[in-house]
Amino acid sequence: MVWVELRSSAVIGTGRRAHLPDEVDGHPISATAFPSTEDRALAAAALLGTQRRAGHAAHQAAEPAPEPSPPEGRPLAPAGASQLLDLALAGNLGRPSDANVLVAHWLRTADEHGAVIPHHLLVGVLNRATAAPDLQPAARQAIGSRGRWLAGHREAWSWAADGAPGPDGAEDGWESLEARFATTTGAARRDVLAAIRSIDPVTGRALLAETWTAERAAERASLVGCLVVGLGPDDDPFLDAALDDKAKTVREATAAVLDRLPGSARGQRLRAVLAPLIDHRTGLLRKRIALAPLPEGTDLTRDLPASVPSGRRRDLVRAAPLATWTEVTGLGPDQLAGLPRDPDDLLPWWVDATVAQHDEAWALALGLATGSPPLLRLVPAPWSAELSRQLVGVLRSQKVPSIAVARSEDLLAERLHPDAVAEIEAWRRRLPADDRSTDASLRHVIQIVTTRSSITEAFS
Amino acid sequence: MMWRVSRWTQQQVIDLAPDPKAVVAARKLAKPGPWSETGSTEALVWGKCQGSGSTPYQVSVDLTGPAFKCTCPSRKFPCKHGLALLLLWVEGSGSVAELNEPSAFAQEWQAARGAKATATRERRAAADAEPADPAARAKRLEQRLDRMDAGADELERWTRDLVREGLGAAKQQPYTWWDQTAGRLVDAQLPAMAERVRAMAGEVHRRDDWSDHLLAEAGRWYAATRAWRRRDELAEDELADLRVFLGWAVAADDLRDRPVADGTWQVLGVHRTDDGRLQEQRSWLRGTEDGTVVRVLDFATVGGVLRVPQVTGAVLRAQVRTHPGSAPARGSFVDDPVVVGQATGLAHGDGAAGATLTEALVGAAARAAANPWSDRSAAVVRGRIVAGDPGALEDAAGDRLPLAAGVDPWPLLALTGGHGTDLFVELEAGTVRPLTLAVDGVLVPV
Hints:
The complex is a heterodimer. By secondary structure, chain A is mostly helical.
């Protein structure tokens, strides 16, 4: 009597299919003790079922287990630092929305000290950085050889695996990227192209050029945006040609990329239009900076595809190289911002231009003049103690400081130097008693800045 | 010595929390700000925590239990204050100083606990001396046995009908068909049988191997009814195993004469389950002198609070009363155990450090032969975790068993790096559930 026969009788029903077991493995099932067919079937099921339950065996695997992780070359982070990471990952330091800022700071600090994440926190870090790709560059080092080994076993973590293309990526990862560019679509494909551009801009552009004419317009518009990664002068001919694309969305996306390349042919054309319009009056009483109207018949539709006639001057300022202003006037951005302007809107236009062109020098100067968060975001971290103190002063002197603080709260929490905490404390003491929201924002900034320095200290 | 006394880890504190919310709340309090008059000795940690009220809460933790006392009104146990205090202490940043003498309130509490334990012991001793009304007891027992007999007869008929009509027909039955049978088993005071029948209503639809599962279970249910009828022929341990299967719990009175083992025990591992109705906590202990393994079970309804778990790897001095039944026996603590050390390695009756899966399975088969009603066994094995869905454990011989359902392989892989380690595992239906890993001389709960 074997299990399979017994089972088929039982599934159909012994009433319909009377199969009478009288022994199981040499154990007789006596007709006296188990008179009916059902009794016998159940007795056999009890015996065979127990055998099956007790008889589970381990089996040889079809494939050998993967190699275990290589030894860790770097020391583990100190226990105190690890506890802070544990808390940050769980969202228990500051607000849950601060977690990524603190985790990023932890990872960078660990990397600076050549330390790696303790193994029990690897899963938490890999999951978080998978959801927040900004953390990935810092995480790749800090997860250590154990983390990169671990990531190699799970598709979602492949960005962190050994052999994944990174600054020192291996060849096989590279090939898989090229293959993925050919096979994926949409946002995933854009990520692949961006990854390729971050390693080898020339190959990235060549891949894009290869299929360019066969792509749909929406795909072209989306992919051309990736050229901001690793953007350089040799991208100019391709981009300039794309300004003639038949789809307006592609032309607009191309112009947005070219905004970041002031030395491009387009940049020079726009500069030639802008320079004669800049009117810088010197003299004690008549100091001002003015922008003359565009001459009749100036056609900028190719270089400014998104522009409408009423906003043409603004769009010209936004896209023309900011260096045009300093060259024509001989003044730096901070000096220009201090002059009377005509139109007065010149200042916000410069802010737009700075953001569009990612100009760090202008961002610092205009950021200190205006306290505008998008500009401050362009000022590279880490912020020095002096810059941080200056910025706190700038925000405090804004017309409506509460709005300025609310807008830049997260940025300050992320970048402010710990030495500026004293300035914020001083500011808090002078706040009107009913300004609870500014006080809450400032306290939050202090909390996160202080937590960042605790993390730094925990490593030293 | 195979153990050392060590300061706890943060994870050990977190494992004591009744739920994740309590951990979050405790972490917010685990900073020096709200605390005053903190201190610690070998066995006690105490402090005062300023809450929203005017009087700070007095918090004391007895590390040997571990046991908690807090004057706050929270019904969670341990409360966030106790957990926060331990987190602060574990951090070791000096905010909880090591002192020679506990503060007055902590000392009082510890003394009161000692007095209460003595009183409980005395009360139990008095109860032992005082016989219950034997006639009333015998009558109650007789009634119960009558009901169980009738229930067993009915279940036997029901299983016969099941195979006569066919398992395929049973699969077509609505949930109520199973539920009515389960309800009658509850009335017959066979609650564990009722639970199995009720669970089967879902399993026949959920499992690919539903017909194997239902047939094997039906055979076992039938065997249980037959065994019950011949219970007078069973040995004490065999009857005890059958009683667990039927759901006839052993009354505290009946345990009084059971042997008590007084010694040191290593906490091999702890597992908690929550089936939506009942929370169960299984703690596996191993006597450090003779290697006896016992299971300590705690239960709570959902929303209730399980007993604070013992710390994995801790070495406890405890009196453990063993329940009747085949090995590994169920045990219960006579008094609160006292932590006397921390183990760094694993050993177990079935298999020792370095054992293969086959050795562990042979042990499990021997347990199943002694107690066919049990579905679970435990062992120490040496192996490496292999990634996958569900993931597997591979031993030195290259044999593998899949990880049990619900086991997340990734934290295990992160901790072991795919290298061989000693693990304490539960074996269940041909799958393994790692409960404890020995990594670099530290026992890590999974």
